[in-house]
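Data card: per-record layout.
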Amino acid sequence: MSAPDAAALPGLPRDADGPVFAEPWQAQAFALAVQLNAEGAFTWTEWAEALSRELAGDPDDDSVRYYYHWVAALERLAAERKLAGPSELADRKAAWAEAHERTPHGKPVELMRDDLAR
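The structure for this 118-residue chain is written out next.
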């Protein structure tokens, strides 16, 4: 997987070594975007445009909010490209919320196969 250069990702929180993530889900969202690009779901230009639309007008520029916009852009592109429909995205969100609720504090949230069978 090759990540896009910094110019293709507006506002990406980074340090001298590259992207930085405050939480594991942020790194997972980043990796998902990189993988979807590698599979041809969208170009980096299309990604930058989608992310820019999500970021437009948001006065809060801290890195946590940034990745919420990142996920929203992924969801929008997934729907536009018919990679996942609204009900599939809603089901997956609900499954993650349930997995989060049952996970002890400080432990990684894991989505099990049974979570997706609902």
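Known properties of this structure: The two ends are 31 Å apart (CA to CA). The chain has two domains: 21-84, 85-118.

See the next section for split statistics.
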